[in-house]
Amino acid sequence: MNTLKKIFVIDDDVYIGDMLEEVLTKEGYSVSRAYSGTEALLLLSSNKPDLILLDLMLPGLSGEKVMEKIKDIPVIVVSAKIDVNDKVNLLLGGAADYITKPFDTKELLARISVQLRDKKSDSIDKSDLVFDDIMLDTVSRRVAIDSQEIHLTRTEYAILKILMQRSTQVVTKSDLMDGICLDTPDCTESSLKIHIANLRKKLKAITDKDYIDSVWGIGFKLKAD
Fold it and tell me: What's the N-to-C CA distance of the chain in angstroms?
């Protein structure tokens, strides 16, 4: 149970807020709510949650403005407002993740679990990187999915390590190319796509999940199933 984990729900839609509070409480989370941007900042001034679910279309102060004031707390944007450009801007602007209304509660709970698990694993062992059911040991360079070891090339390992180190962010193509240039002689955008495609196939072969999201025009991001 997640009894010590506190989640703030910032949404002016009472129906959605009630539904989220009921679902999250059943999962063992502690839930607090705010119905406007101003109320959210007031709540945050005296409390620090482990995670925030934030709608964008709030009365008064918008969700985007609220997010600018939030530091060191993962924010999952929950909104019907989002198109591709909105998603890119939000991720680059500091959002940990996004989910579009209407959403499946199981998917939302999985995304919440990923954010809280990443935070926990960082504090336990800096040599282990964990995302969903992928484990990467930076000391032994061992990679396993669901406890089954997989064999990656030096370049594939370098790509996965960068993506897992920045699992809540979109990693730009140029950042990835900078990060793999020591492991591959052909640091070009076209070769990067090939390495990403090969890495995707190897990861998917174990659990049939697609762990890597392409963010159009920007780069790549890990995604939970």
Answer: 21
pLDDT per residue as tens digits for the range 18-48: 999 999 999 889 999 999 999 999 988 888 8
What DSSP element (H or E) covers 31? strand 30-34
Query: How many whole angstroms separate alpha carbon 114 and alpha carbon 197?
Result: 23
Alpha helices in the chain (DSSP H): 14-26, 37-46, 63-68, 84-92, 105-124, 154-165, 173-180, 189-207
Spell out a b/e string for 45-57, using b for 16 or more CB atoms within 10 Å of the CB, else e: eeeebbbbbbbbe
CA distances in angstroms from 178 to 20, 139, 164, 183, 211, listed in the order given = 41, 21, 16, 10, 22
Q: 118-122: long-range contacts at Cβ-Cβ below 8 A with a sequence spacing of 24 or more? A: 118/167, 118/168, 119/50, 119/74
* pTM for the full predicted model: 0.54
